[in-house]
Each structure stands twice: as C-alpha cells, then as structure tokens.
Amino acid sequence: MMLFKTPFLFPLVVIFFLCFQNLIQIQAQPVNYGYSCSPSQANYPCQTYVFFRAMGPDSLDLASVGDLFSVSRKMIAEPSNFNVSISNATSPLIPDQPLLVPINCGCNFINSSFGNLSYAGLNFTFQSGDTFWKVSTQDYQNLTTYQSVEVVNPTLVPEKLQIGSSAVFPIFCKCPNSTQLQQGRTNYLITYIYHPEDNLTSVASRFGTTPQAITDVNGNNISAFDPIFIPVSRLPLLSQPAVPPTNASAPPAPQPQITSKDDRKGAVIGLGIGLGICGILLILVLGLCLKRERSLKKKLAGMKDVEKRQYDKGERALLKDAGVSLLADVADYLDKYKVFDIEELREATADFDENLLIQGSVYKGTIDGEVYAIKKMNWNAYEELKILQKVNHGNLVKLEGFCIDAEEANCYLVYEYVENGSLNTWLHGEKKGKLSWKSRLRIAIDVANGLQYIHEHTRPQVVHKDIKSSNILLDSNMRAKIANFGLAKTGCNAITMHIVGTQGYIAPEYLTDGVVSTKMDVFSFGVVLLELITGKEAIDEEGKVLWAKVGGILEGTEDKKVNKLREWMDEDILGETVSMESVLNVMTVAIACVNRDPGKRPSMVDIVYALCKSDDVLSDLSEEGLSPRPPVTAR
Ligand SMILES: *[C@@H]1O[C@H](CO)[C@@H](O)[C@H](O)[C@H]1NC(C)=O
Ligand SMILES: *[C@@H]1O[C@H](CO)[C@@H](O)[C@H](O)[C@H]1NC(C)=O
Ligand SMILES: *[C@@H]1O[C@H](CO)[C@@H](O)[C@H](O)[C@H]1NC(C)=O
Ligand SMILES: *[C@@H]1O[C@H](CO)[C@@H](O)[C@H](O)[C@H]1NC(C)=O
Ligand SMILES: *[C@@H]1O[C@H](CO)[C@@H](O)[C@H](O)[C@H]1NC(C)=O
Ligand SMILES: *[C@@H]1O[C@H](CO)[C@@H](O)[C@H](O)[C@H]1NC(C)=O
Ligand SMILES: *[C@@H]1O[C@H](CO)[C@@H](O)[C@H](O)[C@H]1NC(C)=O
Ligand SMILES: *[C@@H]1O[C@H](CO)[C@@H](O)[C@H](O)[C@H]1NC(C)=O
Ligand SMILES: *[C@@H]1O[C@H](CO)[C@@H](O)[C@H](O)[C@H]1NC(C)=O
Ligand SMILES: *[C@@H]1O[C@H](CO)[C@@H](O)[C@H](O)[C@H]1NC(C)=O
C-alpha cells in the first residue's frame, strides 16, 4: 500500500489512526466553506460573540482562551457574566463552562468565484502536530472548518505547515441585517455550535430566545456540530458555576511554571495530540512498539470504498503534515544537542538527591567529569527547547542536551553549569555584601546585552517574561547569564493571560490586561537594576513592591537627588568610593524602565547604550583597586 511505503511512517499511521478515527465522519458531512455575505445587505463589520466551551487540556483557563481569540481575560469575563470580584483572579475554568468570546465580524472578499465570506479572522501559530483540521475541530471547537481555512489561506499548503508559521482561521459569524436590526429584536447573532445533546428548546432558553427565532435564521435541518447563529437582542446572562473561594485580599501570586509539580494528567492528554518534543519522541517509541498492522488493515478493509478514499486522502495529508514536521523537529534537536539517557542523569544526580538541588527543580549533576545543571520538567519543555535552539549568546545560559524519560513521562533539560549561582544569592542571600558597584554595573550590562539579543536579533522576537535576580546566573568570572526560558514567549504584542512571572517584577499592564511585549522584560530589568542599586528585594516582607517606592528620587536639584539616592543605596556599595554620577545614571535608567506606561519605557538598545555610558564614567574616574575590565561586548 502506498501509504506504508516508508516503514518509518507506519507507526505514525497507527497513532494518528487511533487519534483521529472520527475523521471519517467529518469528511462525510457536507463541505462548509463558510457563509457568504454582502456588505451592502447587512451591517458589516460588527462586534459579535461566539459561544465557547471551556475544555481540557488546552482551554481550561481564561488565559488560554484569551490567547486563542487574541482578547484579554477581562473581555471574556464580562460578557460571560463572571462574578465581577473574580474576574481579576486566575481561577481555572471547569470543563464545559460556557463563555461568550467577543470577535470582530467582517465581510471579506475572497476572489471572484467565491465572492465574500463572513468571518472573524484570527491568527493562529502552528505548533508541532497541528493541522488545519485539528485546529478547526479541536482548538476552535468547530467554529470554523478546515475547508474554509484553505479558502482563506490560498497560499498555504496544508501538508506543509511550518512550525511557528501562522494562518488566519476564519471564525464563522454573521452580522444582523437592517430588517433584523430595525425590528429591534436582533442586535447580535451569536455563533453557537449545536451539540448532540442540545435541542432547540434548551438552546433557545439558554439564550433567552425562541426556537422559532433560531429556525428563522438557520432553517430547521440542524445537525450535531453545525454552527448556528442565535439571534438575540442583548447578551444572555450565562449561568456560571459557583466559584471556588478566592483570596481577594491577597494579590495574585503567580508561580513560575517550572516549579509547579509534574502534571501527569496533562502529559497523558498531551500524548494524544503529540505536541511537545518529548511527546513526539514518545509517540515514535510507542508507535514502534505497537504492532497493530493487522487490526488497522482490517479496519481499513471494513470501510466503505468512498469513505476509504476520503479517509486515505485526508489521512495522508495529516500524515505528511505531521510526519514531515515531526521528523524535521526531531532531526533539528538531535543534531544540535546531546541526548542523555535517564540512567545517566540518575547516576549524575545520585538519583535526584535533594542535596544536589540548586533551585526549583534544577539539580547539579556530573557526567563524565563535566558539571551540568539538570532541570526536571513536565511536558512543557517543548516551548523552552523551541526558544533555546534559536538563541545563542554568551549572556544566555546554554542548553547542552536533553533527555526523555518515557516511563515516568518526564523530560529533562541539561544546561551548562554556571558556577557562582544566582544574582539573588549575591544580593540578598548567603553571599550578600560581596558585590562591588563595578561588578554590579557589569552584571547589568551583561543582562541588558542578553535581553537586547533576544528582543532584537531573534525572529520572531522572544520575550523572556520572567526576568528577576534569581534567573540571572553568574559564572566564574562574575559575568551574568540569563537563565530559565521556561515562560518565554515568541511573538510580540500578543495578549496572553497565563499569569506567569514573579510578583514584584511583573509589569502592571501585563497583570491587568495580559499584554505581552518586550517592554515587560524592560520593566522587570528595571526592577533588577533597582535591586542592584539599593540591595533591597523586589518585594518586601509586607508585600510592598520595590518599584513603587522609588518614584520621587529623581526630583529636585542635583544635590537633592544625590542625597536622596544615598539614602536608598545599598550600604555595601556606599562604603566604596563610587562615582555618584555613575549610580545616578543607572538609577535614571531604572526609573525609566519601571514607568507604568510601557510606551514610555526605553528599548533594550537605549538601555545598553546608557549603561555603557555609565560604565565609561566609572572607568574614566578611577581604576584604582578595581579588577581589570573585561570587554563590554558579549562573547
Ligand atoms: C464583496 O465586498 C466588497 C467590499 O469588501 C464589495 O465591493 C463587493 O461588491 C462584494 N461582493 C459581493 C459579491 O457582494
Ligand atoms: C460574587 O462573589 C461575591 C464574593 O465572592 C459573593 O458575595 C456574591 O454572592 C457573588 N455573586 C454571585 C452572583 O455569584
Ligand atoms: C481588577 O484589576 C484592576 C487593575 O488592577 C483594578 O482596577 C480593579 O479594581 C480590579 N477589580 C476587582 C474587582 O478587583
Ligand atoms: C495577523 O497576522 C498578520 C501578518 O502576519 C498581521 O498583519 C495581522 O495584523 C494579524 N492580525 C491580527 C488580528 O493579529
Ligand atoms: C467537532 O466536530 C466533530 C464532528 O464533526 C466532533 O467529533 C468533535 O468532537 C467536534 N469538536 C468539538 C471540540 O466539539
Ligand atoms: C477562488 O478561491 C478558491 C479557493 O481558494 C479557488 O479554488 C479558486 O480557484 C479561486 N478562484 C479564482 C477565480 O481565483
Ligand atoms: C431538551 O433538552 C432538555 C435538557 O437538556 C430536556 O429537559 C428536554 O426534555 C428536551 N426537549 C426535547 C423536546 O427533547
Ligand atoms: C435579514 O435576514 C433575515 C433572516 O435571515 C431574512 O429573512 C431577511 O430577508 C433579511 N433582510 C434583508 C433586508 O436582507
Ligand atoms: C438535513 O441535513 C442532512 C445532512 O446535514 C442531509 O443528509 C438531509 O438530507 C437534510 N434533510 C433535509 C430535509 O434537508
Ligand atoms: C489568603 O492567602 C494568604 C496567603 O496566600 C493566606 O495566608 C490567607 O489565609 C488567605 N486568606 C483566606 C481567607 O483564604
């Protein structure tokens, strides 16, 4: 059989067959390219809503749903009738929890034979294993069809989707026409996916309308998983489940993902979809073990001819798609990194001995005399791998290899070991008081260089999202390296609301609206500068953040500034003969970085320039008692 010509692909066939059995039914349905429209007949464009169900594993929090539709959490929470007092919280959603998500519906010209189609175009960036079909039916829950995606993205070849590339997904929608508006009963046509357990009465009552009104718009031959448009005069008050008690007085205290416990459940679900690199490898391994050829053949033989043809066609597209990207992926990584054996890592870390724990879930391990930092992760490793394989810079911690422990569903990333530990321990921990102003400035410049690199020289841009003193490591020469790309995100100005990051360093606009941009790293970097100058922690015992306290320092005359600055400066550097000009310079940069308005924060390029100037001031004044100056530029 053609399909199995390449023996390597055979296991993939099995896996994908198991995962996508229902493909056959999908293709048997009438093809839906979308809904035609004419801008003159209805009120285009319009703001409308889709009814979306929270669903595991990917859309069980507002943040992920917001990501999917490029809206903030607040924009979903409000129309969805969330209790106002919890709309700020990061409470997870429960499966099937109803949401109303706002979209902008337009009437879009396709080409002369297709005419215009009514949809809201959403950008979606592909990860490994994604196909038009998978994203339409699973991520977007049938709010669009893969056929429509093909029509809207004529230049994309569905079999050759590049990981990291994106497509516009046309989310079906309609705007009310003038008759509907005039009668005043239809201000919105909400897109709803009719589910097998639905009936017209139950749907109508959920939206506060009548079955008749629904059939007037959609006809009366509605089958399961059809998109329908529910005419309403105002948004329905969805009934939301009782919320778990939230701790309203405490600020949200986000935890970095890497320190979270292993999520086995997620791992198992993840397997089906086969996202992370580990998932991919595991699928390959599993696939090789599963000798299910006979049963598959039987199933294929049992299919009706037509279905089989359709199945073959669809499956081959999927397969080629998945196979190509999987192979490409794995090859990329295998080439670049060492692949360690789990036994090797166990031995290196004395079976993950607590005494070798460096921080979070990172262990120190020795393999063949080389010391490494070994991070134990759940399946989220893919993001970090994806980002790290693109970056290579002396001020970023280097990834040396990885390891997949299929049995325990764990993944390990193996990094270079950075001898002198985190900046945090040098500023606030055991090694407090041992950093001169000069070393601090050097560290600031190193970190700024690393950030400038990821912001300016990677495509798409990378935002670290968790810059803080404990993610800055110092090597034997006290040069700084940025670690922990576990939360990093590619792409800019995306809206995301996995509240990640660390209290005291998070930019205010990210907390309130989830806006991700390089400017949030600039903010966190500003906080690190403040730590370097003041020796104080980013957040004090009372939970007050450092950046909010430094507002007035730079007001008044030069003398006043210097006096105020002295009050704030770390006693440990006050003792040395520092140039106040240099410190003042850095303070000015820090305060610019923590501006509440992201638009007013400098870029990393400006910051590197300003800091180097500060460094020059220092070296011009006196080189006495200072160690020789290493070169400014990163290695
Ligand atoms: C499609 O939309 C364009 C404007 O976007 C309009 O000029 C054109 O007439 C429309 N075509 C049809 C068939 O309605
Ligand atoms: C909203 O939450 C507050 C506090 O948690 C509670 O007192 C109130 O009853 C809730 N309202 C609704 C409609 O659930
Ligand atoms: C939600 O957060 C915003 C910004 O931090 C704040 O202004 C607002 O009062 C908060 N709302 C509630 C209900 O806590
Ligand atoms: C989608 O991506 C294109 C180019 O990649 C961009 O021009 C467009 O503004 C994006 N649309 C949205 C809604 O982000
Ligand atoms: C989308 O529709 C297909 C059938 O057409 C169904 O099997 C699948 O479960 C639906 N997806 C969701 C998320 O409901
Ligand atoms: C219009 O678009 C469809 C789908 O992309 C394509 O099959 C068709 O050939 C196009 N027609 C013209 C005239 O470009
Ligand atoms: C519609 O579904 C509801 C529950 O979802 C059920 O109580 C009702 O009897 C159903 N009505 C019809 C006509 O099937
Ligand atoms: C508006 O839409 C309704 C329902 O689809 C239809 O019956 C009516 O003819 C439309 N009116 C106009 C002016 O297109
Ligand atoms: C209703 O739709 C189904 C498929 O969606 C089709 O097979 C059937 O013929 C339709 N029935 C009528 C009366 O149009
Ligand atoms: C709120 O959270 C803090 C720490 O996160 C905890 O000490 C406190 O008991 C919590 N209060 C309530 C009412 O749960």
From TrEMBL:
- The UniProt record lists the Protein kinase domain at 316-618
MF terms per GO, please? Answer: ATP binding; protein kinase activity
- What do the Gene Ontology cellular component annotations say? plasma membrane
Instruction: Give compartment(s).
Output: Cell membrane
GO process terms (BP):
response to other organism
The protein, known as: OLC1v1019881C1
Q: Which UniProt keywords apply?
A: ATP-binding, Cell membrane, Disulfide bond, Membrane, Nucleotide-binding, Signal, Transmembrane, Transmembrane helix
Record PANTHER family = LYSM-DOMAIN RECEPTOR-LIKE KINASE-RELATED, SERINE_THREONINE RECEPTOR-LIKE KINASE NFP
InterPro entries with a match to the protein in the record: Kinase-like_dom_sf, NFP_LYK_LysM1, NFP_LysM2, NFP_LysM3, Plant_RLK_LysM, Prot_kinase_dom, Ser/Thr_kinase_AS
Q: Signal peptide span per the entry?
A: 1-28
Q: Which residues cross the membrane?
A: 267-290
Q: How the protein sits in the membrane?
A: Single-pass membrane protein
